[in-house]
Amino acid sequence: MTAFSVKHKSEGTSTAVFDHTFYEGYTTSVNLMVSDQGIPQYYWAEFHMPICLENLCNPMDLEVRWDLLGNFMDYVEYEDAPLTKFDHVPLDAADHQKLKGIIGNTESILQDYAMTDLIDTSRMVYSKEVDGMTGATSKTFETEVVSGAVYTCYALWNVVNGGVKQAMLHYTAGIMDESLRLAMLKSGNEFYIRHILAEQETHTASVDWQLFSLIFGENDYLAIQAMQALGVEFWSQEAAVAKVVEEFDSLKTPLRNAFYAKMLTVPLSTASLEEISALLEGNGSQDRKEIYAILSQHKKGMSAALKERLKTYLSRRQQEWQFDDYKIMEELEINL
Questions:
Q1: pLDDT band at 283 (very low <50, low <70, confident <90, very high)
Q2: Are residues 195 and 291 in the same domain?
Q3: How many independent structural domains does the chain possess?
Q4: Span 218-245, mean pLDDT?
Q5: Which of 49, 57, 139, 166 has its CA 20 to 30 A from that of 149?
Q6: For the segment 4-43, what is each residue's pLDDT rounded down to a tens digit?
Q7: Residues with Cβ < 8 Å from 211, sequence gap 6 or more?
Q8: Among 133, 166, 199, where does a domain finish?
Q9: Using one digit for the tens of pLDDT, what is the confidence trace for 113-127?
Q10: How far apart are the two ends of the chain, measured CA to CA in Å?
């Protein structure tokens, strides 16, 4: 059989990495595509299996691709064996689009039913294939399947979303290294990024700095997660604090608050404290309160010069003093 798209065959080297038993006991090899640079790209498997119920059978011949976390990516039909609907009518472009949406939905109600539940035997339709009547798709599932392709939808959903996902996650964990982590972080794939952020282990410096770059990206959720995930050793670096201060005006309030909270929990050098204290200029009362809290927390690391600059700052805004100003003067023993 000749696949419609075999581009992936030239994207690197494909190797069978484990066998897996899929839906209805069908066993086949799961392959890993690795780029010419040695970076794992995705998993794929070939299927040549009949999908049958009552007297009707639909062949399912195709390749399925999953990402490195076992999430559905795509399927590829074979030129001489396209996926078909009722009475072997080939799926059209709209059918394929809907089918991919269905099997990519890991929360589909299909997971809670047997294939026989999808057929309403009280509603019969004529099949040329068996020259007789057969059950129609149950109205309950009409929006959950491609019309006329209930068997294919159900079987393919179970193929894609069965136990193979955990098997792929396990295999990916076994091959995870710095180069793969960096590739996953740079891919822009949010599933990959969240996976790396959730890892409970120490990363290399290169991976940490790549995580750090998320702070300045467009996804606020990932930015905050990256801020929180980076550890004490990373934030002890003056360059990291200086970069956040440099970009501070572009940070939204939730991310600013995450930064302030982090700075309360990590050791800071005098240079980093000076960087943070510079944020007092041009920011509002809430920022001032948070910065004061950081300076108070790290008062043992404050230099005499920094303390003097803070004194000058407080003196300049004496007419605007509030509770937090009096509090920081008391905690740092600043007399004006």
A1: confident
A2: yes
A3: 2
A4: 96
A5: 166
A6: 333 455 578 999 999 999 988 999 999 999 999 999 999 9
A7: 185, 196, 197, 203, 226, 229, 230
A8: 166
A9: 777 777 654 443 433
A10: 86
The per-residue DSSP string of 149-198 comes to -HHHHHHHHHHHHSTHHHHHHHHHHHH--HHHHHHHHHT--HHHHHHHHT
Given a contact cutoff of 8 angstroms between Cβ atoms, the answer to whether 78 and 61 are in contact is: yes
Domain that holds residue 36: 7-166
Burial track 190-203 (b if 16+ CB lie within 10 A, e otherwise): eebbebbbeeeeeb
Residue with tokens 């484990």: 18
In the block, residue with structure tokens 């004006």: 336
Is 117 in the same domain as 53?
yes
Which of 166, 187, 221 represents a domain boundary (last residue)?
A: 166
Percent above pLDDT 90 for the chain: 66
Give strand ranges (E) for the chain: 12-21, 27-35, 40-53, 56-66, 72-77, 119-127, 132-137
Residue 232 lies in a domain: yes
325 within domain boundaries: yes
Q: What is the DSSP letter of 269?
A: -
Say whether both 113 and 196 belong to one domain: no
Residue 6's identity, in one-letter code, is V
20 within some domain: yes
Residue 86 in any domain: the answer is yes
